[in-house]
Design brief:
Number of helices: 18
Strand content: under 5%
Strand order of the largest sheet: 1-2
Order of helices and strands: HHHHHHEEHHHHHHHHHHHH
Radius of gyration: 21 Å
Shape: globular
Low-confidence stretches: 243-255, 258-268
Largest sheet: 2 strands, antiparallel
Number of strands: 2
Distance between the termini: 68 Å
Mean pLDDT: 85
């Protein structure tokens, strides 16, 4: 009975949260968010059904938390980051309230949908023009991509990390008014995947430092803060990824080992990335599976999405990409550097389409935001040229 009540409650809370955005969004935008919430719930149910017959980390996070004792909590706290934090987060709903994992999906779907809302509002605040592609407005269409909603809808790290990354970018648009959001997103990301937080900080720190349209003191302050936190986290990250020290040899050995583990014959939908040249590894991470990789409905949907992303990327690269980057808002630049750094790191270590799509979930907001900005800027340039010719 409690499962039914709480599942229904969190579904309603999604619509309530949307209603509270009415002071900054118009009626059409609110309706788009309502539709996004319905789509998000749909993929949460699909993800739940998928995990009933397939292995998934979320099953372990919930099952182990449900069977934990108070003594186990002390152990989880002492071990600190990553998986142990998920057991800690899930202990109250799974063990204390004895909720089913389906209710867990509804809870985490609500949390990650807040991240979808922040991504939506970031696009509204930063993207001036809604570009049409093959006669269709690409915003908010791109936000309906399955990669945004599927992996982020389960009771696991991906939901919380998606929430943190999108909240962090939204907060930095007006940091003086949204400092609380920035701190909350930092803490959650640090607890879940501290190495990803350092990549995020690196992207935003470098972008702010090099952005000439931001006041010097503000650029230096943000860079020093992000660099300071990253340095403080470095020992934790080294322990988390099982490296004694950061050297080129240690890092490459770890990436090669992980690539072998994730590209073997026993791994479903595997790709032998070790034999790929550098550029093909990048393309594989960003744009595969494609149509020639289809072996299931899952990869078929992903291939359609990736093909659209590929076409949009080609369009962006063909239209003054350097000038586009230079004129982008600092948050858009930050997300692009975050995307590039993440792609460089993860493209060398992942060789399974399922894992690639799952890991790409935390970078897809950055990817989509930059595409939207670049296409909007291209539209602006063309409009200005038309006005000058007239």
């Amino acid at each position: 009975m409690l499962d039914i009540v709480l599942s229904t409650l969190f579904i309603i809370l999604g619509f309530v949260f949307i209603a509270f955005q009415g002071n900054t969004l118009n009626k059409t935008e609110l309706n788009s968010l309502r539709l996004l919430w319905c789509v998000h719930l749909f993929f949460a149910v699909i993800f739940y059904v998928y995990t009933r017959s397939n292995s998934a980390d979320v099953n372990g996070y919930w099952k182990i938390a449900k069977g934990s004792t108070p003594a186990d909590l002390a152990l989880y706290i002492s071990k600190g980051f990553g998986t142990n934090v998920m057991y800690l987060f899930n202990y109250f709903p799974a063990h204390t309230l004895d909720l089913s994992i389906f209710t867990g999906f509804m809870i985490y779907a609500f949390v990650s949908f807040i991240g979808v809302c922040y991504l939506y509002k970031t696009c509204i605040e930063l993207i001036p023009y809604n570009t049409r592609f093959f006669g269709v407005n690409i915003f908010p269409l791109l936000l309906f991509f399955p990669s945004i909603h599927f992996w982020s809808a389960g009771p696991g790290k991906d939901a919380l990390l998606f929430f943190s990354i999108t909240m962090f970018g939204y907060a930095l648009i007006k940091l003086n008014k949204r400092m609380g959001l920035a701190l909350l997103s930092t803490i959650i990301a640090m607890l879940i995947r501290p190495h990803v937080l350092i990549i995020l900080f690196a992207g935003f720190g470098v972008a702010f430092l090099l952005s000439m349209n931001v006041k010097v003191w503000k650029r230096l302050l943000i860079f020093i803060l992000l660099a300071g936190v990253s340095i403080a986290l470095l020992p934790t990250v080294l322990e988390y990824v099982s490296l004694d020290s950061i050297t080129v040899e240690n890092t490459l050995n770890r990436l090669d080992s992980q690539a072998r583990n994730l590209s073997g014959d026993t791994v479903g939908s595997s790709v032998d990335i070790q034999s790929y040249p550098f550029i093909l590894k990048i393309i594989t991470f960003l744009f595969r599976p494609l149509f020639f990789d289809i072996d299931s409905m899952f990869t078929a949907l992903a291939s359609i999405e990736n093909f659209i992303l590929l076409l949009l990327t080609i369009k962006v690269l063909a239209s003054k990409p350097i000038k586009t980057y230079r004129n982008a808002p600092v948050v858009v630049k930050s997300y692009l550097i975050f995307l590039l750094l993440g792609t460089l790191i993860f493209s060398f270590s992942l060789g399974n389409f399922g894992i690639i799509l799952r890991m790409k979930n935390m970078f897809i907001p950055a990817f989509i935001l930059y595409l939207l900005w670049a296409l909007s800027y291209s539209h602006e340039l063309k409009s200005n040229q038309v006005q000058k010719s007239n």
